[in-house]
Design brief:
Oligomer: heterodimer
Order of helices and strands of chain A: HHHHHHHHHHH
Number of domains of chain A: 1
CATH class of chain A: Mainly Alpha
CATH architecture of chain A: Orthogonal Bundle
Largest sheet of chain B: none
Largest interface: A-B, 61 and 61 residues
CATH architecture of chain B: Orthogonal Bundle
Number of strands of chain A: 0
Shape of chain B: elongated
Mean pLDDT of chain B: 88
Helix content of chain A: over 70%
Distance between the termini of chain B: 31 Å
Structural class of chain A: mainly alpha
Order of helices and strands of chain B: HHHHHHHHHH
Number of strands of chain B: 0
Low-confidence stretches of chain B: 250-255
Structural class of chain B: mainly alpha
Chain lengths: ~250, ~260
């Protein structure tokens, strides 16, 4: 295990070495040596200006993700539980979810202006659909026996939702939430490309427009790291919330 | 053949009618386009050939980028999936590159490749390659050991085993990966166009209409992109059912 990890790290280090020597040989300002990128990142990342960009992005992600996930779970549960509602809303939802969220950016800019309302709305729009679809699938997969038992026991609709559908759909909802997390991060960047005063997307675009190439590379790397850390944290939380699922479903506990 | 979903289309018609009424009665022309105006602009744009040209540009970079991603993702996935050592060796590099959102690479790609189709093709390929690569890799790894052993004892070379055993076994996962990639690729492609105004493509068109405050044209383009995304989903779903017809419903894949 250790040696296998070491091999991966060694290849990674070799790749960085190739980048470094190539950049020195090429001497193009578009391809700064990795040492220069690291040096600039070391200087820039701890500055309050950069950290404010990070905070701005995280704030937008949190707000948009919370709204999108909330709407997605609520609507998804209802659509999963009610066949009539599902049929009635299916064409509308299928169409809306086929729209790449960037397409509604100009629409929202006209409607809401260039403020954070537009950004949060774009993120929520993109986050909502994968959560919705997974939640509805999760509810539909509830076994007929469980449904019939609940019906026989005269379980009310609210209790049915809370005690049968929600727990049964939870693994599926969590899967949807994880897909939505990476989409959310993409949309944070996209929304910050458009008229934003701060944020990582703004930082990357403005660095590139002022030809601060090492800073731009640093911003891209930071985004990659952020995506990685957020995904790790999500997996940790998932294992905590769904511990019963991995045991019961006979899947290996990851 | 399923019966038509009357209720569903009725809801769509109701929502459109409600928007139309709201725009007209509340006088929202400054911030929202009325559906009739948007459809009118859409039809006019298509009839004049302006929009068809923009769609052509979008599809050109989209198809090129996706094809690149499929080629690279499948080849790498099959090679890595069939060799433990190569997989271990590439693990850290892949886990490092994969979380970088492709849209963040657009400014960098613009510096290297300019605003045109090659830049878009690159970022689309970068966005689309990861789900295809990962799904192919798991598909190859999940293949039946016994089939490999039978093929080996029957004298099939290792290259032959890759193509004739590992690849068919991974085909359903590859199809899943392509389906997941298709929508993220469209998002990234249109975003790249949006950020490179004046160089064609539906995203660039939308940027122009937003600046010119031509709301009916803008909303028409949104509808068009939605239809395009929907058509891509349907076409890929149909192709998938035809090519990997032996796989039933209810499969899942890594994303």
């Amino acid at each position: 295990m250790i040696t296998r990890r070491l091999l991966g790290v060694a290849v990674f280090a070799a790749a960085l070495g190739v980048w470094e020597t190539w950049a020195h040989a090429e001497a193009s300002f578009l391809l700064p040596p990795v040492s220069m990128v690291a040096e600039r990142a070391w200087q820039v990342w701890p500055t309050s200006e950069f950290l404010l960009n990070v905070a701005g992005s995280l704030k937008r992600l949190a707000a948009g993700y919370a709204i999108g996930a909330g709407v997605g779970v609520a609507v998804g549960l209802v659509l999963g539980a009610r066949r009539g509602a599902r049929l009635a809303l299916e064409p509308l939802i299928e169409f809306l979810r086929a729209i790449p969220p960037i397409a509604i950016v100009p629409v929202l800019v006209v409607m809401l202006g260039l403020g954070d309302g537009m950004r949060v709305a774009v993120i929520a729009f993109g986050v909502c659909f994968p959560v919705l679809v997974h939640a509805a699938q999760g509810v539909r997969a509830v076994s007929p026996e469980a449904r019939d038992t609940a019906a026989m026991l005269h379980v009310g609709p609210a209790e049915l939702l809370y005690r049968l559908y929600l727990p049964a759909a939870l693994p599926s909802i969590v899967a949807g939430l994880r897909v939505a997390l990476s989409i959310g991060l993409v949309l944070v960047v996209i929304s910050e490309f458009v008229g934003s005063p701060d944020g990582l997307g703004y930082y990357i675009l403005s660095s590139s427009r002022s030809f601060n190439v090492p800073e731009m590379y640093g911003g891209i790397l930071f985004l990659g790291l952020l995506g990685y850390v957020l995904n790790r944290l999500f997996l940790l939380a998932e294992r905590h919330v769904l511990f019963w699922h991995y045991g019961a479903a006979g899947e290996p506990v990851r | 053949m399923k019966p038509p979903n009357v209720a569903g289309w009725l809801v769509v018609a109701l929502v459109v009618a409600a928007c139309e009424a709201a725009v007209r009665l509340l006088d929202l022309y400054d911030s929202v386009a009325a559906p009739t105006a948007a459809f009118g602009a859409l039809v006019a744009g298509l009839a004049s050939g302006e929009l068809s040209g923009e769609i052509g540009t979008t599809l050109e970079s989209y198809a090129g980028g996706l094809a690149l991603a499929v080629a690279a993702g499948v080849v790498l996935g099959v090679v890595l999936g069939s060799s433990r050592v190569l997989q271990d060796a590439s693990f850290v590099v892949i886990e490092f590159l994969r979380p970088i959102p492709a849209v963040a690479l657009i400014p960098l790609a613009i510096l290297f490749l300019g605003l045109g189709v090659p830049m878009r093709r690159f970022v689309i390929a970068y966005a689309a390659v990861w789900p295809i690569l990962i799904n192919t890799l798991y598909g190859v790894r999940g293949g039946d050991r016994l089939l490999h052993d039978v093929a080996r004892t029957s004298g099939v070379s290792s290259a032959g085993r890759l193509v004739r055993v590992a690849l068919p076994a991974a085909l359903p996962s590859i199809a899943t990966g392509i389906r997941v990639s298709a929508s993220i690729a469209l998002l990234v492609g249109v975003t790249a166009e949006f950020l490179s105004p004046g160089t064609g493509g539906i995203g660039s068109y939308m940027h122009r209409q937003q600046l010119a405050f031509q709301l009916p044209e803008l909303y028409g383009a949104v509808v068009l992109v939605g239809v395009l995304g929907y058509a891509i989903n349907v076409a890929l779903g149909a192709a998938e059912r035809r090519v990997v017809f032996w796989v039933g419903e209810g499969r899942t894949g890594a994303r």
